[in-house]
Amino acid sequence: MKPEENFKEFWKKVLAEVQLEVTPVVFGTIISRTHLEQLDDNSALVLCADEFIRKNMEKKYFAIVQEALNRIAKKDIKLVLGVKPISTTTDKKIGQDAKDLGPLFQPKDPNELLNEKINKSGLTSKYTFENYITGKNNQLATAIAKAVAEKPGEIYNPVFIYSGVGLGKTHLMQAIGNFILKNKPGMKVIYTTGESFTNEMIDAIQSGKGKGRYASNDFRNKYRKADVFLIDDIQFIAGKDATQEEFFHTFNALYLSQKQIVITSDKPPKDFTNLEERISSRFNSGIIVDMQTPDFETRIAILRARRDKDIDPINNEVINVIAENVTSNVRELEGAYLRILSYAKATGEEITPEIAMVTLGQTIKEKNKKPVNMNEILNAVCSYYSIKSSDIKGKKRTKELVLPRQVVMYLIKDLTNTPYISIGDFLGGRDHTTVMYGVDKIGQDLKDKQTIKQDIVNVKQMLFSV
Ligand code: ADP
Ligand code: MG
Prior knowledge:
- By secondary structure, the chain is of the alpha/beta class.
- The protein has 21 helices and 8 strands.
- Helix 1 (about 5-20) crosses helix 3 and helix 12 packs across helix 13.
- The strands form 2 sheets. Strands 5-6-7-4-8 form a 5-stranded parallel β-sheet, with helices on both faces. It has a 3-stranded mixed β-sheet with strand order 1-2-3.
- The protein has 4 domains: about 5-110, GMP Synthetase, Chain A, domain 3, CATH 3.30.300; about 120-290, 3-Layer(aba) Sandwich (Rossmann fold); about 295-370, Helicase, Ruva Protein, domain 3, CATH 1.10.8.60; about 375-465, Chromosomal Replication Initiator Protein Dnaa, Chain: A, CATH 1.10.1750.
- Helix 3 (about 50-75) links the parallel strand 2 and strand 3 (about 80-85).
- The protein binds adenosine-5'-diphosphate (ADP) and magnesium ion.
């Protein structure tokens, strides 16, 4: 690349970043009327079309451009503003500089720009209010979320939403973010999870050597610049001291400057046992709202909306069957729907309520298979073959003991997926290769020995019948 191209390319990247942080109007009337005149190792001279633009740049957009410069240069570059000498062609229209530099200044397509902003915020565009079904279970939470999206930082702050898994917390929270990005393009939205926040915090401590348990300024600034801070699954930070501390400071900084904060969690603040008191009391200062499992009608509405969006070949009767049988949460509901849909697509058959029942029946049964542990398996096998567990664990290798011992090995592997080494330890300190052999042996026998097959079925029945 020629140096001239490098230079243009560099400025293009800076502008692309800046464009994500200002409104289209600001970009069109201010930012696009500047250009990079000079760039060296330490400084960048940016010329503004006139004094008005320069003043605006200096007062309002300096930090944004400065930070974008540093990010793209990957080092500190001093931003110096100047005014372009008045040229003989006085008539400076909006975007004229843009044309000077070819395609560099062409504002992006608004949709593309919005998508970039969504990605940069950490959001996913598919979670919107439009596709969020409201029922009795989430009415209040949805109303609060919409109010906050309309007037961030002005009505309820902070907002704390809690519910069990799969009930729509992440969807609702991201809908707030997506709405704001779309309708208030100048606002900076940051979405993160308790887990990512913690991980970033750890990285920041590690890279900021010598600062003990404190995060670097980059980390701090990232979050403190937000106009809207969305933090999902906050329960993750409970009990992690340094992260809690950092979160506390981020929270306070944003709260004091009246920035919107939204938090979700799997439980209400009062149920946190290892969250610092000063943090949970902050949560209580705003509004706390919970969400319940959706009722039958709401489950149907969710499934129908889903079906209609893609015109899936699933009729209302089948939807009723799913809604009647899957009641735990929306994620499970969607999962069941998708299984039936993929069955329909794979077979090309029309799905009847009966087929749906069978498909659901299998998954419901699998889920209900209660977990068993090694001791329960050992006891069931011993009582089935009428032998003592000490004999199974012991050294004797008589025929009466070898088979049941191998059945225990096989069932433990099959039902608990315990490592071979641990199974060996459990069975009186046997070598893992012995266990592997036993598991394999029964696996082979199952293919052609009817009696073994029956034994295994019977023992399983003993284990799983209540
Ligand atoms: P949570 O964060 O509470 O565990 P999610 O927001 O991840 O739950 O929701 C699980 C799935 O269910 C997502 O695909 C989400 O889009 C969907 N979902 C949840 N609630 C609703 C709702 N009220 N309307 C439509 N889809 C929903
Ligand atoms: Mg979630």
